[in-house]
Design brief:
Layout (H helix, E strand, L loop, with lengths): L2 E5 L10 E9 L2 E4 L4 H6 L4 H7 L9 E5 L8 E9 L8 H14 L5 E5 L5 H14 L18 E5 L5 H26 L7 H15 L2 E5 L1 H6 L3 H7 L7 E7 L7 E12 L19 H16 L4 E11 L11 E3 L5 E3 L7 H14 L4 E6 L3 H7 L4 E5 L2 H14 L3 E3 L17 E2 L7 H10 L7 E6 L5 E2 L10 E2 L4 H12 L16
Parallel strand pairs: 1-7, 2-5, 2-6, 6-7, 10-11, 10-14, 13-17, 14-18, 15-16
Antiparallel strand pairs: 2-3, 4-5, 8-9, 9-11, 12-13, 15-18, 19-20
The structure holds ligand BES, manganese (II) ion (MN) and zinc ion.
Ligand BES binds next to helix 11.
Length: 512
């Protein structure tokens, strides 16, 4: 695993394989970002011209490798684009994360590298550390052949004496968050023949012991005894029985209790309402919400935040078989409501309903659920933005504010009352599907029925951003992305510190 340290040594004298510098888009071509000064001197003032001749503009995502001149210990200088040059103040944290991520990926195969990027504030140092660590990720657990390069081993963030202490704090926090985001990514990338509800629960138990968290696993027998008809109904067609896992962190001085609920369908075939070819081979990702909740609780505990957080992972495999739930069946949910299953492929909301009711019993101040819930959400917002729905506009804004500052793209969506009647069932209290148009909102309306009145609740539909199908970019790898982990951690941190949404870093209107 890649590690990060902080140093005040001059970049040119470090015995590393490469030095990373920042190049930004100036009004008349590329300009060097603060941090690159000593490296630029070693090039005798010719560095900007060399970069210009190589076609470097300083745009985001750009990266070039140069052989080092005399006077630089490292063999290679790697210039990475930061986007528009910033004259006063600091570079945007997300630009720094993206640039550091691009750099770290280009450093694969090397042992050690130093990052001489503009880190004037603690936030900037943390952004560089986190972007680099997240960008260095590669999922290689299942490769036995091939020549995939190992991620860069050791990264050193260079800072001046003034920024040293805060950079260290930032690097430590980044180390914690990256470890847990990567835990989430690993789980999402793990194929469903190895990640079953049972093996997922075993992993949570092991981490719970390591981190001293309370873990409670309800197996299929306990779920039957407890009348969790939703989770059982979805899981009953599979040879791998379902689980409901509780993982709880508490702080002695906590004033707030948060509940996170995650959709953990370890594989979604659609069930009897089977998905067609082209849609079913991508469905190991359907436990991304549960993985995000698990990782976020783990990170919050490692950060020692002054808050109580309980994660609820609704784990099941949605398979067709002779014992599977049929379209038309009625399930008796945890808490007693009945649900007519019109489409067994709308299974996420069914397992979440049980978990939401169970989470609500503990009277948390707020509940946030995270789920790869609907294809409609991908149609609406694309593959990089998650939708946020809520029963309380202030709480929804709080979640969106946390997402923005954590560097995750999120956008608010409504829960229109007029769509609710489309979920009316001829035989049961509610049906699991309704109007197809606005399908993501209809799913949100279904979930809302299982949230206790008066409890703040937000629903994050991460069906788009949970899994990245294209080539890696910035600090986002192919495959599992760790979507929502950083938002949940930021939200917990805000609530623990009683931070209210502000507009301290406004972005262009209409951008996330
Ligand atoms: N897990 C899927 C949603 C999904 C699709 C997530 C693609 C990620 C990528 C979910 O269980 C599902 O199948 N939803 C259906 C609901 C419909 C039957 C009402 C959908 O969105 O098509
Ligand atoms: Mn489904
Ligand atoms: Zn699903």
């Amino acid at each position: 695993m890649t590690t990060v340290t902080v140093s005040t040594s001059p970049a040119v004298s470090l015995r590393v394989d490469a030095i990373v510098i920042g190049v930004a888009k100036g009004p008349q071509g590329p300009v060097l970002a603060p941090g690159a000064e000593t490296v630029a001197e070693a090039f005798d003032g010719a560095l900007v011209e060399i970069l210009g001749r190589l076609g470097v503009s300083g745009a985001e995502g750009e990266v070039v490798k140069l052989p080092s001149p005399d006077g630089v210990e490292a063999g290679v200088v790697l210039a990475v684009g930061l986007g528009e040059a910033v004259n006063s103040g600091a570079y945007d944290a997300e630009n720094l994360r993206e640039a550091a991520g691009v750099a770290a990926r280009s450093l694969a195969g090397m042992g050690k590298a130093a990052l001489a990027l503009p880190v004037e504030t603690a936030e900037a140092a943390q952004a560089v550390a986190l972007g680099a660590l997240l960008g260095a990720y590669a999922f290689t657990a299942y490769r036995t052949i091939g020549n995939a390069k190992a991620p860069v081993g050791e990264l050193t963030i260079l800072t001046d004496h003034r920024g040293h202490t805060s950079a260290k704090v930032g690097a430590q926090r980044a180390t914690v968050i990256h470890r847990e985001v990567n835990r989430c990514r690993d789980l999402v990338n793990m194929p469903a023949n190895d990640l079953t509800p049972e093996s997922f629960a075993v992993t949570v138990r092991a981490v719970g012991e390591e981190y001293r968290l309370e873990v409670e696993v309800l197996d299929d027998k306990a779920l039957t005894e407890g009348s969790f008809g939703g989770i059982l109904g979805v899981g009953q067609g599979s040879a791998n029985p379902p689980r409901l896992v509780k993982i709880a962190y508490s702080h002695p001085e906590a004033q707030t209790n948060l509940a996170f609920v995650g959709k953990g369908i370890t594989y979604d075939s659609g069930g009897i309402s089977l998905k067609p070819v082209g849609f079913n081979e991508i469905m190991k990702r359907d436990m991304s919400g549960a993985a995000a909740v698990f990782a976020a609780v783990a990170a919050i505990s490692r950060l020692g935040l002054r808050i109580n957080v309980t994660g609820w992972l609704a784990l099941a495999e949605n398979m067709p078989s002779g014992s599977a739930t049929r379209p038309g069946d009625v399930l008796r949910m945890y808490g007693g409501k009945t649900v007519e299953v019109l489409n067994t492929d709308a299974e996420g909301r069914v397992v979440l309903a049980d978990a939401l009711v169970r989470a609500g019993e503990e009277k948390p101040d707020a509940i946030v659920d995270v789920a790869t819930l609907t294809a409609a959400m991908r149609m609406a917002l694309g593959n990089r933005i998650f939708g946020v729905m809520s029963n309380n506009d202030d709480f929804r804004n709080r979640v969106l504010d946390a997402a923005r500052r954590a560097g995750e793209q999120a956008w608010p969506l409504p829960l229109p009352a007029q769509l609710r009647k489309s979920l009316n069932s001829r035989v049961a209290d509610i049906a699991n599907t309704g109007e197809r148009m606005g399908g993501g909102l209809v799913a949100g309306l279904f979930l809302r029925e299982f949230v206790p009145d008066g409890t703040d609740w937000a629903h994050l539909d991460i069906a788009g951003p949970a899994f990245h199908e294209g080539a890696s970019y910035g600090y986002t790898p192919e495959g599992g992305t760790g979507s929502a982990v950083r938002t949940l951690v930021q939200l917990a941190e805000d609530i623990a510190g009683d931070r209210r949404p502000t507009d301290d870093h406004p972005r262009r209107t209409g951008t996330v």
